[in-house]
Write a structure and sequence with these properties.
By secondary structure, the protein is an alpha+beta fold. The chain has one domain: Beta-lactamase Inhibitory Protein, Chain:B, domain 1, CATH 3.30.1450. The chain is built from 2 helices and 4 strands, in the order H-H-E-E-E-E. The chain has a 4-stranded antiparallel sheet with strand order 1-2-3-4, with no helix packed on it. A hairpin with a 4-residue loop joins strand 1 and strand 2. The longest helix is centred in the N-terminal third of the chain and has 18 residues. It is elongated. The termini are far apart.
């Protein structure tokens, strides 16, 4: 009986630990529900152009591999070669005063 109780208690403890979740906080950003659509990692430059239109500004590629930056006003898209590497929502950034 004691063994069964120990197994049940151990199982409950393991389940309760597994149910806890961590919250990822990115320094310099705050959480937002503004619903802005951003280009997803891995899509091509051509697809970004077709879905989001022409950027306000295009920065020339820098480094090796070449990293290119497109500015859309509310967000920026970073490409490695012709593929989206990262998109940044500028409305959620905490800018220094």
């Amino acid at each position: 009986m004691s063994t069964i109780r120990n197994i049940v208690l151990t199982t409950l403890l393991m389940v309760s630990c597994a149910l806890q979740a961590d919250t990822l906080t990115i320094p310099g950003h705050y959480e937002s529900d503004n619903g802005i659509a951003l280009p997803q990692r891995g899509i091509s430059m051509e697809r970004v152009l077709s879905e989001f239109g022409e950027p306000i500004d295009r920065k020339a590629a820098v480094g090796e591999p070449p990293i290119t930056e497109w500015d859309y006003g509310d967000f920026r898209v970073y490409f490695e070669f012709q593929t989206v590497l990262h998109s940044v929502n500028l409305k959620t950034m905490i800018m220094p005063q």
